[in-house]
Specification:
Shape of chain B: extended
Structural class of chain A: alpha/beta
Structural class of chain B: mainly alpha
Largest interface: A-B, 114 and 104 residues
Number of domains of chain A: 2
Bound molecules: nicotinamide-adenine-dinucleotide, zinc ion
CATH superfamily of the largest domain in chain A: Medium-chain alcohol dehydrogenases, catalytic domain
Number of helices of chain A: 11
CATH topology of the largest domain in chain A: Quinone Oxidoreductase, Chain A, domain 1
Largest sheet of chain A: 7 strands, mixed
Distance between the termini of chain A: 12 Å
Order of helices and strands of chain A: EEEHEEEEEEHHEHEHEHEHHEHEHEHE
Oligomer: heterodimer
Radius of gyration of chain A: 20 Å
CATH architecture of the largest domain in chain A: Alpha-Beta Complex
Strand content of chain B: under 5%
Chain lengths: 382, 193
């Protein structure tokens, strides 16, 4: 089969690989119909995630058709069209039993601090991902869901991560009616977080980024006010001015380790890898939220320590909430919101690349060229 | 500043109340649909799902766990695990050391894994040079032409450090090429002597 393969930082290519096999009785093998590149993939692509091995196939957002099932699989049949949450999870450990699917303890031998994720280095379990023609799906009775007839494929693929994460991020903000919510980052995750903040009763939603086309999308798709941080000497002061010197009631950090906006931090974190990413946006969130407020962090960071302003968080009495998204838990409610048009994931899709051009897709998405917001990957059609 | 100009933060209530429900509902599709926390799927944080689809108390164990690396914070290799890119070569030895010797709580664990990553990359680059498909310092650069690279960056602040990308990406390659050239010269000189 054809598969995206990592060749080192900033280097990927498409290679011929063996079609994955059933390795556990509850495995399925899925033929990928549509995949996407996530902001999280950029951390791998830039060589920031420890134990990212040469030859690894990335990709944790995908939908497809069941090609083969293991001997103990009961709920899926060959030919079913499924959407697969980016989390690999067992459904039965201490954590899964309490709904913490992203923190499953039975799927990632390489680390206890993070669960299993498709195509996301050996630090999350060493599973090849879905930017390929086929992918192994462990615990097929637990993760995948048949795609509802009414659902658009491009919504389905975004619901496997980016959209679910935006919705989850808004929930972590513990929004109450009338709150002023600031969303840092107008990528796919931030845009859906902004849409979701309204569903939870926000009185004002302000999205901050510096990419004009994304801010435009935040205004049209998420009805948000926007601030371009390039236009301000100090965006934290602007956040205070915008909120009558209170600070925002809730800040949702949807940027993560690639954060920009502070030259030194960015270079130290993401270029020289002197810390586990650049916590610029996280620090803006801590400084920009009001005392007693909540910071929701869905932007991803690696396991290497970061220079986070923890003292400010303590002194301000903040609530910090965060996690990798337990995707499947979001779905039943989210499906209603998508069906009703309250959440519109596929509005963010700007580019569609054939799998053979995936190196170009990574470069375009990483460098944010050509107004790219969300690129999809189409495996060879047959 | 008269007293009525004093900003919200210094008095009891927000000076500008949020727009009314009616106003928000009219403007925003679905406003307030999840106003009640009980409608939010991740509230409360811990919930016991009725049925996760698991029909086991503890999953069957995937064969092949013997010798597979694992975090020493785990009691055993988990019942399911990835089998992609097993450890091999020098990078494999470095990574194995990281797993066997240091918990996830130790910086050394992660730093060794990062070293393993760089060694793995160079082992692979060297192998690629004698294969039909040599690695290059960065891929996908055609996108600069097909997706209007320079135009896209016009007026953006990240232009400043994007100019560093070529240095960060190509730097190690130039250094490696330089070192190889110096090494080769030293060998040639030694042989001549
Ligand atoms: N928690 C999870 O389960 C989960 C799931 C998916 C993605 N993520 C993470 O969410 C983050 C966003 O994902 P995405 O797909 O939207 O990525 P993206 O790269 O498309 O978007 C990130 C955006 O942040 C902007 N940005 C950079 N620095 C900023 C700053 N200092 N302030 C404000 N904006 C800034 C960028 O210009 C960009 O538009 C990533 O870190 C990703 O890893 C987490
Ligand atoms: Zn992701
Ligand atoms: Zn579990």
């Amino acid at each position: 089969m054809r598969a995206m393969v990592y060749r080192g930082p900033y280097k990927i290519r498409v290679e011929e690989k063996d079609v994955p096999a059933i390795e556990h009785p509850n495995d399925a093998v899925v033929r990928v119909a549509l995949a996407a590149i996530c902001g999280s993939d950029l951390h791998l692509y830039h060589g920031m995630m420890p134990d990212t091995r040469i030859g690894h196939t990335f990709g944790h957002e995908f939908i497809g058709v069941v090609e083969q099932v293991g001997s103990s699989v009961q709920s899926l049949q060959v030919g079913d069209r499924v959407m697969v949450p980016f989390n690999i999870f067992c459904g039965s450990c201490w954590f899964c039993s309490r709904g913490l699917y992203s923190n499953c303890h039975n799927v990632n031998p390489n680390a206890t601090a993070v669960g299993g994720i498709y195509g996301y280095s050996h630090t999350t379990g060493g599973y090849d991902g879905g930017q390929a023609e086929y992918v192994r799906v462990p615990f097929a009775d637990v993760g995948p869901v048949k795609i509802p007839d009414w659902m658009h494929d491009e919504d389905a693929v975004l619901l496997t991560d980016a959209a679910a994460t935006g919705y989850f991020g808004a929930q972590l903000g513990e929004i109450t009616e009338g709150d002023t919510v600031v969303v840092l980052g107008a990528g796919p995750v931030g845009l859906i977080a902004a849409q979701s903040a309204w569903l939870m009763g926000a009185g004002r939603v302000i999205v901050i980024d510096h990419l004009r086309e994304r801010l435009e999308k935040a205004r049209t798709m998420a009805h948000a006010e926007t601030l371009d941080y390039d236009e301000y000497d100090d965006i934290v002061v602007e956040m205070k001015k915008q909120t009558d010197f209170l600070g925002a009631d809730v800040v949702i950090e949807a940027v993560g380790a690639e954060a920009d906006g502070n030259f030194l931090q960015h270079v130290a974190g993401t270029k020289l890898k002197l810390q586990g990413g650049s916590p610029v946006a996280l620090n803006w969130a801590i400084d920009g939220v009001r005392k007693g407020g909540t910071v929701s962090v869905v932007g991803a960071y690696g396991p290497i320590p970061n220079a986070v302003k923890f003292g400010d968080a303590l002194n301000k009495g903040l609530t910090l909430r965060m996690n990798q998204t337990p995707v499947k838990r979001q779905w039943p409610r989210m499906f209603e919101h998508v069906r009703n048009g309250h959440l519109t994931p596929r509005e963010m899709v700007t580019h569609r690349f054939p799998l053979e051009d995936i190196a170009e897709a990574y470069h375009v998405f990483s460098a944010k060229l050509d107004g790219c917001i969300k690129p999809l990957i189409l495996p060879r059609a047959d | 500043m008269t007293e009525s100009d004093v900003p919200s933060a210094y008095v009891r209530d927000k000076r500008t109340p949020p727009p009314s429900r009616e106003e928000l509902r009219a403007r925003i599709p679905g406003w307030g649909a999840d106003l009640d926390p009980a409608d939010r799927p991740s509230y409360p944080k811990l919930q016991y799902p009725a049925d996760t689809g698991a029909h086991w108390d503890f999953p069957e164990r995937q064969p092949g766990a013997e010798g597979r690396e694992r975090s020493i914070e785990h009691a055993f290799v988990t019942p399911a695990f990835g089998t992609a890119q097993p450890l091999h070569g020098l990078s494999g030895a470095i990574r194995r050391l990281a797993y066997q010797r240091f918990s996830e709580g130790r910086l050394a664990h992660w730093m060794l894994l990062i070293v393993g990553d760089r060694v793995d990359a160079w082992e692979s680059h060297l192998r690629s040079f004698v294969s039909g498909r040599p690695d290059v310092p960065a891929t996908g650069l055609r996108g600069e032409l097909t997706h209007s690279g320079p135009g896209s960056r016009e007026g953006r602040s990240d232009k400043r450090h994007q100019v560093l990308d070529p240095v960060v990406v190509a730097g190690p390659w130039l250094a490696a090429a330089g070192a190889t050239a110096l090494g080769a010269r030293a060998v040639v000189r030694a042989l001549r002597r």
